[in-house]
Amino acid sequence: MSNKSDQQSVNRRQFIGGTVAAVGALTIAPGVILHAATEDDKASSGASSEHRWGMVIDSNKCAEGCNACVDACNNEHGLEGHDRPETDAVWIRAVKLKDKQTGHVNRLVMMCQHCEHPPCVDVCPTNASFKRDDGIVLVDRHRCIGCRYCMMACPYKARSFVHEALSDQSVNAPRGKGCVESCTLCVHRVDAGVMQTACQEACEKEGHAAIIFGDLKDPNSEISRVLKSNNSVQIRADLELNTGVRYLNL
User: Fold this and answer.
1) SS3 234
2) What are phi and psi of 234, to 5 degrees?
3) With contact defined as beta carbons under 8 Å apart, do 122 and 76 qualify?
4) Is 1 helix (H, G, I), strand (E, B) or coil?
5) Would you state the pLDDT for residue 210?
6) N or C terminus: which one in the chain shows less Cβ crowding within 10 Å?
């Protein structure tokens, strides 16, 4: 009995594999096409394990009352509000940390931490949440079913759910109602060879320079030099997620 069952399983896998290989794209609804990933697709994605993109954020330079990085992110990715803040997408936000003993307050910006071991990826039932070879954590909107398990798993509250119907979307960030989304480290810029995120660019224009983006694997990059010469911390280091975003002066 077990031999027959095993053979049926093998035949089923062979059938599914042959079907995926033969069909490059599958239409599941009008206007919605899922493409079967091929080796050529993976090779052209721009992601390479030779790099690991990350950020350093200096809380001492994060200026009180400044919202330039948040505005820049919203503009870059078309994250328009709908006069309902509780449902608006938030990819980056300013937070304050207060030491209960001393009363000292730190201001910093929080976004997806692009973990080496991302909990959002572990809990996703459809593999919609995934980590690229270069460390950038993303959401495949074709696969996202809106279950929001990843939002519950994220210890940084860094993900948003798209509640509203969308129009006039930015080409930099295709979005979809009913999907989860979060900071992409401006992956469209990275893949185009522009080594500066929108938030970093805006922060520099304001004269604060609190954000540094770069390649954590390149010992000669600015971010690597800063991390080597300064004591940096991870938010919730106890979780051992090895975040790609580090903070100074916390």
Assistant:
1) coil
2) -100, 145
3) no
4) coil
5) 97
6) N
Q: Report the alpha-carbon angle 212-195-239, nearest 5.
A: 50
Alpha-carbon distance 74 to 176, whole Å? 16
Looking at residues 40-63, what average pLDDT do you find? Answer: 81
> Which two structure tokens, joined as six digits, stand for 170?
């930015």
Amino acid residing at 61: K
Give the range of the structural domain holding residue 219, as residue numbers without chain letter: 47-248
What is the distance between the alpha carbons of residues 123 and 154, in angstroms, rounded to a whole number?
10
Tokens matching residue 57: 């954020």
Q: At what angle do helices 198-205 and 68-77 cross, to 10 degrees?
A: 140
pLDDT single digits (tens) 109-118: 999 999 999 9
**Which pair of tokens denotes residue 122?**
């572990």
**Residues 13 and 81 occupy one common structural domain:** no
CATH number at residue 186: 3.30.70.20
Element containing residue 180 per DSSP (H, E)? strand 180-181
Nearest-Å Rg of the Cα atoms of the chain is 21
CA 158/CA 9 separation, integer angstroms: 40
Task: Please say whether the dihedral angle defined by the alpha carbons of residues 196, 201, 204 and 210, taken in this order, is positive or negative.
Answer: negative
